[in-house]
Design goal:
The structure holds two protein chains of two kinds.
Chain A: H1 8-18, E1 19-22, H2 34-43, H3 51-57, H4 73-84, E2 91-95, H5 103-118, E3 122-126, H6 130-136, E4 140-144, E5 147-152, H7 154-161, E6 165-170, E7 186-192, E8 195-200, H8 204-214, E9 220-226, H9 229-236
Parallel strand pairs in A: 1-2, 2-3
Antiparallel strand pairs in A: 4-5, 6-8, 6-9, 7-8
Helix pairs in contact in A: 7-9
Chain B: H1 2-17, H2 19-40, H3 53-83, H4 86-91, H5 98-127, H6 135-159, H7 163-180, H8 192-198, H9 202-215, H10 221-241
Helix pairs in contact in B: 1-5, 2-3, 2-5, 3-5, 3-6, 3-7, 3-9, 5-6, 6-7, 6-9, 6-10, 9-10
Classes of the chains: A alpha/beta, B mainly alpha.
Chain lengths: 243, 245
């Protein structure tokens, strides 16, 4: 294994000069102020960036004098990202960075991550959110039980699983959906709670609706979906999500 | 050096921002002095001409500052740094981990000395406590005894990984020590069997070391040897047991 061309076991400290890490289970002392933490962490590195613009980028400027324990969850998250960037790293690891954030904060964080990437830093983003990986990543590795089971761009991974689309609907009123399997182009039909999902290729929506109409059924809440990274994940890891 | 300076600066601020640490290091020993001297007065000590009780007690109370910082404050700080992942986060930087420990020792030693000075100044101004026979030796004894006890604090922080356990164990060791060592109550008052228990308590030797230097100006070699032994053994144990995560 090698990181930035060096063995992490051997290069240790030298390598840590060049990488930034945001850990999921990490903390700062409760009473440390935001600026003090950044200032302290900057002193750990031979080449540290100016901490003031960093505070500004991560929206912590007004919180510079606030103690760590008085920050909100999102602010705590952002100070850890700022700390991971304090040495202007070539490679930065962000672990479960948007977990627990509201959709607004999540989207803001996405923009900031894109900003880090556009600044020339390689970002290794660890996430359970497939939509996040699909939107942000140039390359995605799916790890199952500690092993990389897939590694490619999101588009290529989705293409590999198959370009199937699906039609989801409710309002069956006791209708048995088994005959839908015989529709041309349909590969499988699944029940999910009160809904039925029909998977397949071709003009799936039109054919499904026509078939249902033939049985006198008017489907409700009809949605059409396409394969996503989530389907790839489930396909590659054996259809169950594990922690 | 820049790193150690920054780290020490931040740790000093954190110490000052922790009300419990400040209270027990700075205020509580002075309160004990005022309370006990208020109850027992400042009477001549029988059998020791020219010595009044505060001359013995105040140097004895200084060991309380050492014990509190080393056995209550230090293990809690280190255990919580570990439990919360503060050490883990720092391990992901090029920082040499020993810097963290050195900064802790510097800050805790400084606060201990400050607490002791405040206590002694109070005893001097209010009760006209006699000045020590060997002031530099007394100062050296404070530093040496503190380091020796800090090492014991590191052992606690190494053996007990959870904050709650480290805290409880610190108290379990510290409070009996405080009462049985002669730090709070003069050993002369103890019956024989308690004196014998007292001989096995490290804090007893801090009290003896400090009191002998204060009153007589002589080093108590037994006490010195015991504390040196405590230092060596504790450093050896904590070097083996201390964990970063």
């Amino acid at each position: 294994m090698s990181v930035l061309g060096q063995g992490p076991q051997i290069a240790g400290r030298k390598l840590r000069e060049r990488i930034g890490v945001q850990l999921q289970e990490a903390a700062l002392p409760e009473d440390v102020k935001v600026w003090e933490a950044l200032d302290l962490y900057a002193s750990f590195y031979k080449a540290a960036v100016d901490t003031r613009p960093l505070l500004k980028t991560w929206g912590l400027e007004e919180k510079a004098d606030t103690r760590f324990k008085d920050l909100s969850g999102g602010q705590k998250q952002r100070i850890f990202i700022a700390l991971a960037l304090v040495n202007g790293p070539e490679l930065v690891f962000l672990d479960e960075i948007t977990t627990g954030l509201d959709p607004q904060a999540r989207r803001t964080t996405w923009d900031l991550i894109r900003g880090i990437r556009d600044g020339g830093t390689t970002v290794v983003l660890v996430t359970h959110f497939m939509d996040e990986a699909e939107k942000l990543c140039d390359r995605v590795a799916i790890i199952d039980g500690g092993k990389v089971v897939a590694l490619d761009s999101p588009e290529a991974l989705i293409g590999e699983v198959g370009a199937e689309s699906n039609v989801r609907f409710g309002g069956l009123n006791g209708f048995d959906p088994t005959p839908l399997r015989n529709i041309l182009g349909v590969s499988r039909v699944e029940r999910e709670a009160a809904d039925v999902v029909v998977y397949g290729n071709g003009p799936l929506l039109a054919r499904t609706v026509v078939e249902l109409d033939r049985h006198g059924i008017t489907p409700s809440k009809v949605t059409v979906g396409h394969s996503t990274l989530e389907d790839v994940f489930i396909e590659k890891t054996g259809r169950k999500i594990r922690d | 050096m820049k790193v150690l300076y920054k780290m020490t600066q931040v740790e000093a601020k954190l110490f000052i921002r922790e009300p419990a640490a400040m209270f027990f290091t700075i205020a509580f020993p002075v309160m004990i002095l005022l309370l006990f001297a208020g109850i027992f007065g400042n009477e001549p000590v029988p059998g020791m001409p020219g010595v009044r009780s505060v001359d013995l007690q105040a140097p004895g109370y200084t060991t309380m500052v050492i014990g509190t910082v080393a056995l209550i404050g230090l293990p809690i700080t280190l255990a919580s740094y570990r439990q919360q992942g503060i050490l883990r986060r720092m391990r992901a930087t090029p920082l040499h981990p020993v810097t963290i420990l050195v900064a802790q020792v510097i800050v805790n030693l400084t606060m201990t000395i400050l607490g002791i000075l405040l206590l002694l100044a109070t005893a001097r101004f209010i009760y006209s406590m006699s000045l020590p026979e060997a002031p530099f030796s007394v100062a050296a004894a404070f530093v040496f005894a503190s380091l020796s006890f800090f090492a014991l604090g590191f052992v606690l922080a190494g053996l007990f990984s959870r904050v709650r356990t480290a805290q409880v164990m610190g108290q379990v060791i510290y409070f009996p020590m405080l009462f049985l060592s002669g730090a709070l109550l003069p050993r002369e008052m103890f019956p024989d069997f308690i004196k014998r228990i007292s001989d096995f308590i490290p804090l007893t030797y801090v009290v003896e070391l400090v009191q002998d230097l204060w009153i007589e100006g002589t080093w108590n070699l037994t006490a010195l040897a015991v504390l040196l032994g405590l230092l060596v053994v504790s450093v050896a144990i904590s070097a083996r047991t201390f964990r970063w995560e």
